Every structure is written in C-alpha cells, then in structure tokens.
Amino acid sequence: MKCFYHQDKDAVAICKSCHRGVCADCSADVPPGIACRGKCEADVAALNLMLERSKTVCQKTGVAYRRNALAVLIMGVVFIGIGLLPVLVGGGCGLSLIVVPFGCVFLLMAFFNYRSGKQISNVEPQGK
Known about the structure:
Number of helices: 3
Largest sheet: 2 strands, antiparallel
Oligomer: single chain
Helix content: 55-70%
Strand content: 5-15%
Number of strands: 4
Order of helices and strands: EEEEHHH
Distance between the termini: 30 Å
Radius of gyration: 28 Å
Shape: rod-shaped
C-alpha cells in the first residue's frame, strides 16, 4: 500500500480516523493509534478519549438501574401499605382498590429494573 499523500512512498500505518495509508513523514503517533499529521490528530485523540470513557459505561448503567429498582421498590411497599392500612384497621376499602394495584405494578417494575441492572453489569467489555 502506498501513502495517500505521497504516492511514491510506502505506507507504514493506517490513520485511525480516515483509514488512509500514511508514510512515516505523514503519520503522527496519537497513542493508541496513528493519525494523519496535521489533519486527523484531533479526531484520533477524541476517538481515543471516547473509547476510554466507554469502558466503564456498562457497570455505571447497571448500578443506576439497581439504584432505581430500590427507589421503585420502596414506592411499591408504601403504596401497598397505604392501600392495605384501611382494610387492616377496619375502615373502608374503596381507595385500596386503586392504590394496591399501583403498588404491585411498582414492585414488578423494581424486579425488572434490578434484573436489567444485573444483566447490564455482567456484560464483558470488548477487548479483554
């Protein structure tokens, strides 16, 4: 393969941004990668930063899902408690017919949020 910018020279690397072959004179080392000197260095640096930041995104997202599951679980327990309290005390049950099902929905949402959080956290990052 020849250098994109100097057709008479052999390429020694491929630019991480534009994927063009570059010779030693046209290449700039932007660890971990090579860029076209003076043209793609900022793009390759941005790509490297984005890749580095994305390495922990699954674990952070999984923790957020599990934290949300705890909040929704508490809401479900409170709704069910408020709905069942009049029945247990001996009062009417009109409001509980509405509040208890909402509490059950919150409990179900908490279960699915927790399960999704565990599945997301267990995803292995690529390249390991």
